[in-house]
Amino acid sequence: MSTYLHNTSFNFYCSGIYTGKIHFTEQQVMHAKVDLRRRTQMQDNVLDGLVSYVLPLQKILENIAVYAKTEWVKEEVVLENGAVYQKHISYEAMIAGTLRTSQVWALRNQTALDIVTLDGEIIAFLTPNRYGMELIIKDGYEQLTPLTVYQDPLLSQAEYGINDLGTFLIPMRDGVRLATDVFLPDGIPAGTGLPTILVRTCYDRNGKKDVFHRWANKGYAVVSQDVRGRADSEGELIPFYYERDDGYDTIDWIIAQDWSDSNVGMWGASYLGNVVVAAATSGHPNLKAVVDEVNVGSPFVDTVRKGGTLCSWPLLSWTLAQSVGTRTDFDIFGGITVDPQAAVDARPIKDIPQQMIGKASGPWDLWSRHPEYDDFWRNCTFTERGDQVRVPMYVISGWYDGDSAGVSETWRMLSQHDVPGRKIRLGAWEHGPNRARDYKGVSFGNDAVVYDYDVSVLRWFDHYLKGVANGIDQEPRASYYVVGENRWRTSEDWTPVEALNSLFYLSSGGRANSASGDGKLLLVPEEHSPEDTFSYNPLDPLDDSGEREPENLRKYELRNDILVYTSEVLSSDLLVAGELSAVIYAASTGLDTDWAVSLSEVNPQGDSLRLSNYIVRAKYRHGLDHPQLLVAGQVEEYDIFMPNIAHRFAAGNRIRFTVTSSSKNVAFPNTNTGNNPYEDTEPLTVQQTLYHNSQYPSHVKLPVIVEH
Q1: CA dist list (Å): 515 to 512, 553, 564, 652, 658
Q2: What is the span of the domain harbouring residue 46?
Q3: What is the pLDDT of residues 156-200, one digit of tens each?
Q4: Where is this region: Disordered (predicted)?
Q5: What share of the chain is helix, strand, coil (3-state, %, to 5)?
């Protein structure tokens, strides 16, 4: 058995920064680290198990004999351990005076752990991720690997060590002090002004410290802060409420420091993404660049009261995880120590934290005291101050991001106010983007995982904070990955300027109940099309996953309380890319109710793979500021946002649109009574009617790109 990988010395790079040497013994991973401040090589030691590198070094060790004995030939290689690798891209470089060509192999069906070979032998392992690609490379072969993406002469280079200034308690305008760490490039003369990248987190600033301070290696001051009420910061966590003002006050503190050049950028993802968008709405003149990934949206759009409903497990899991202490309990968040189904089914809703974790939740109790959209919620809603946004914002998300509703909300705000310098990148990615090339049975191209993810973020900061003319501001505004076509496209805007809105009208013979019914999607509305009806019982809600994933809805579409409308078989491919929406005309016998819609692609075998879905509460049909209960039997119009997609529907498949009234893993089922949802425990079964004729032309609007 070949053991050439054992005791081979690899150079370790994180985000393009040399991080020491790695070699594998028979039993251990050895790491000769680099001193963070002086950048001097330290001695060889067993890899510290507490260091959270993304590159799975222990996994490489466990499989090293398998990697070494594999014959890296053909277009696809199946390893002895079942891993599937495909030929991806090649690199050419002069090595020791000879032109050499390497081969990159893309891992399928798992989190990407790619391999680079030269003449059939492995010279590198790498893992791309949102924070920065991590690689180990045989010394001298760096030019034959994706590490070259960090060598752009216009890109900030890793020229510095890190000077950790320690922790400061920064007072906000109300006197609450927030724990804040500062990292500077080492060796910068005292008083030298530096651009700053600010990260504000609810997950403990120490958790990703090694990741965020890498920007300091590249000439930035890095400021990492716990938001109020979390980890070492004072105060109480009231999600969304203080983030705009606290962001403003923190920027004020930064620009007053002698190491600041008064140019501040912010980075954030998920809740941290909401934090940076909120800070952007403060209008602070020294906030010059924002990178916003998979951001949580405003409470009535994406969280807490999604679509006006009361969000269930996605919100509940996060809130309970924040409520047991000042540091997040990720076992609760992951549904490990709290049963998601038990939590979602518990009643009354306002008492769920007490039942699930044995104590009250401050945020949950506060939200239950504000059942309607009022000044409290306005202060939590970043779009209320969208006219204050002036900072160039780079928005990043994907088709399987559970917070894509928030991303769309952000992009609509930026577009509405024509914020200069806005840019968006949308991939075949989950909430943790740029991870894998296959997801829930759907396969993408090898290029769905990109090697320049963090490089594009650095280019953004380099341009807007350092003034580097690297051209990122001249690139197309939108870059997006088309699923089904499996390639990247660009456009001058999002929704793509090339897209034409096409209306697909609902129709039936009055029996659209379930996939076995007679519901149709038509390009021309039918003048006389009888309405469809179904009975909605809140005690028997739809229990699909609710996640933004290509779930097969086939078994749910057998239910009679789902109205199903399906197109004819497509004679040719149909490319849909952009923001979606639907307009339905409906009546209910309840005082309030919900409408849940979904778009899917149906193959000849009958599988119905979800592409986009959303849910809205009827009482907010005239706007959040104008809640109005229903009049039994009265037809109302509902204009429903749906999260974006870029998808090529294949010839031979069909388009499907469904309407129902529940999705309990997204939102607690509406009791239909119009009573306070946090307290109501007496649900009412109602009759729902959906209209589709010339007077009430219910339809779904799809942005179609016509190709010639």
Answers
A1: 8, 10, 6, 18, 9
A2: 4-150
A3: 999 999 999 999 999 999 999 999 999 999 999 888 999 999 999
A4: 529-549
A5: 20, 35, 45
Contact of 476 with 147, CB cutoff 8 Å: no
Distance CA 616, CA 597 (A): 9
Q: Which of 436, 468, 491 is the last residue of a domain?
A: 491
Q: Does 350 lie in the same domain as 280? A: no
Which ranges constitute the DSSP H helices of 493-539? none
Peptide bond into 348 cis (omega under 30): yes
Contact yes or no for 286/262 (Cβ under 8 A): yes
Amino acid at 169: L
Q: What span, in angstroms and rounded, lies between the C-alpha atoms of 614 and 155?
A: 40
- Residues in Cβ contact with 467 at an 8 Å cutoff, skipping those fewer than 6 apart: none
- Confidence bin at 1 (pLDDT 50/70/90): very low
- For residue 66, with 0-12 CB atoms within 10 Å meaning exposed, 13-18 middle and 19 or more buried, which class applies? middle
Which single residue is written with the structure tokens 């090898």? 446
CA distance 577 to 566: 19
Same domain, 415 and 447: yes
d(CA 264, CA 260): 9
User: In what order do the strands lie in the sheet containing 423-430?
Assistant: 162-171, 177-185, 221-226, 194-201, 260-269, 287-293, 393-400, 423-430, 478-482, 487-491
CB 614 within 8 A of CB 630: no
Domain check: are 552 and 690 in the same one?
yes
C-alpha 678: how far from chain center: 28
Sign of CA dihedral 390, 391, 392, 398: negative
Reported pTM: 0.97
Return the number of other C-beta atoms located less than 10 Å from residue 626's C-beta.
10
318, pLDDT greater than 50: yes
Does residue 678 contact residue 371 with C-beta atoms inside 8 Å?
Answer: yes
**pLDDT tens digits along 336-379:** 999 999 999 999 999 999 999 999 999 999 999 999 999 999 99
| Among 150, 174, 191, residue at a domain's last position | 150
Residue 398 forms part of a structural domain: yes
The domain that holds 291 is classified in CATH as: 3.40.50.1820
Question: Strand 221-226 and strand 194-201: pairing?
Answer: parallel
Residue (of 17, 35, 23) closest to 125 by Cα position: 23
Separation CA 425–CA 439 (nearest Å):
19
User: Is residue 511 in a domain?
Assistant: yes
CA gap 631, 592 in Å, rounded: 9
